[in-house]
Automatic annotation (TrEMBL):
<feature type="domain" description="Calcineurin-like phosphoesterase">
    <location>
        <begin position="8"/>
        <end position="221"/>
    </location>
</feature>
<dbReference type="InterPro" id="IPR029052">
    <property type="entry name" value="Metallo-depent_PP-like"/>
</dbReference>
<dbReference type="Pfam" id="PF00149">
    <property type="entry name" value="Metallophos"/>
</dbReference>
<dbReference type="InterPro" id="IPR004843">
    <property type="entry name" value="Calcineurin-like_PHP"/>
</dbReference>
<protein>
    <submittedName>
        <fullName>Metallophosphoesterase</fullName>
    </submittedName>
</protein>
Amino acid sequence: MSALPPSVFATSDAHGHLTELTAALHEAGLVDREARWSGGDARLWVLGDLLDRGPDGLGVIRLVRRLADEAAADGGQVRTVLGNHEVIALGMRRFGDAEVVHRGVARTFSSIWSRNGGLASDQAGLDDELVDWLSGLPAIARDGDHLLMHSDTTGYLQWGDTVDDINETVRSLLASDDPVAWFNVLVGLGRRHELGGADGPAAARMLLDTLGGARIVHGHSIIGDYFGEPFDSYDEPRLYADGLALDIDGGIYEGGPCLVAHLGG
Ligand SMILES: [Mn+2]
């Protein structure tokens, strides 16, 4: 019988920065010098946006998938949730230059992809097996008191009022051939900054009351951007919304830190 509960960690928005992510996981004691899982029975949540913007999105994906296998063999766990950039990459592959009228506006996935730091080298590695893996990622998860999601938005509730319902709905939308349905997912996951400001705590409370948990942990919104601070001026996640929300996106591609939040245990 183990006397201590396993430690729980979360990181987010690696955006192709494999070297920085590996170093941060090593610093947290989760991988050894050869980047092999050394976290024992710890649990690590990876909150999306693995690719685009940085040099090696495919390398980041390979790392988290390998660590998931190694952690599972060691009694631990590494799990990934869906970010908007995963949806952009999948939509780019599926619909590319096809013009789609979405809410009265003609749009293409390829223009969104190129405007948002899409890398041809990442895209070239999206084979059927990887597409299946990305398409099966949950949009949201709960681990004890923590509600884990990529984007700081109440938009998740448009897809359901339980964690399982939301994940089932998003998976089915991303399995459809309807690009408008895909754009709706992307718009939902692109929302941000809805847990801050005067109305933020009530929004966070509504998410937690509906989906469970005592604290939201999210990426997607870089701490420096959100709170108006230089990217090199912080080295910890930011607790806000009366303690109901934790932003763990340090802003790696802006020169900010790759944060690995120790959530408990
Ligand atoms: Mn994002």
